[in-house]
Design brief:
Elements (H helix, E strand, L loop, with lengths): L13 H4 L9 H17 L7 E6 L4 E6 L2 H4 L6 H13 L11 E7 L3 H10 L3 E6 L1 H7 L11 H7 L3 E3 L4 H14 L4
Helix pairs in contact: 2-8, 4-5
Length: 185
């Protein structure tokens, strides 16, 4: 029998950990939440050390994502992908900013090649990044895959502003803790 449905979920703890009524003004507040999600995900043993949040133009949460690859046996269940998919389902549009609204993705670590590709078409206007891909590869067993040499320029040419190294040390602390744990999520 062929599977005709895919069911991906965020961990149950997300509902208690995220205040959807709060405003997250500033890049550090946004990336700080993504890093907090990444830490909680490994502490709860519900996935890998990655978190992502989609914010609207009023600095409010539209959707969150955590890495769920191992729990769901699904290689696309990365934090950014989960955040994009839940935001798109909530707003019922595959390109978030198609109506002229502004959206930001804050992520604990630089998107891998898969999440980079999704970022091109997800409909965000800003990408805020904590740790770099070289941090991920140095501190964990993850392979981030190939990106275009000028990946930031490619996104910016498509109207997506990129800012990185936001709370990089805090993001690296979570990656380091995960890498040293020997756990494989």
């Amino acid at each position: 029998m062929l599977y005709a449905q895919i069911h991906l979920t965020l961990p149950a703890w997300v509902h208690d950990a995220v205040d959807t009524s709060a405003t997250y003004a500033g890049d550090e507040a946004k990336v700080g939440l993504a890093i907090d999600l990444s830490a909680r995900n490994i502490d709860a043993a519900t996935g890998g050390p990655f978190g992502a949040v989609v914010f609207d133009g009023a600095d409010r949460i539209v959707a969150v994502g955590t890495n769920r690859v191992v729990p769901h046996t699904c290689s696309v269940a990365h934090a950014e992908m989960m955040a994009y998919m839940t935001a798109q389902q909530r707003l019922q549009r595959f390109r978030l900013n198609e109506d002229g609204s502004r959206f930001v993705l804050a992520t604990s670590s630089q998107p891998c090649c898969q999440c980079y590709g999704a970022t091109v078409w997800a409909g965000i206007d800003e990408l805020l990044i904590g740790a770099r891909s070289e941090d991920v590869e140095a501190l964990t067993p993850f392979d981030e895959g190939p990106l275009p040499a000028d990946w930031i320029g490619e996104l910016e040419r498509r109207g997506i502003a990129v800012r990185r190294d936001i709370l990089r040390d805090a993001a690296c602390d979570v990656l380091r803790r995960y890498g040293e744990s020997g756990v494989a999520y």
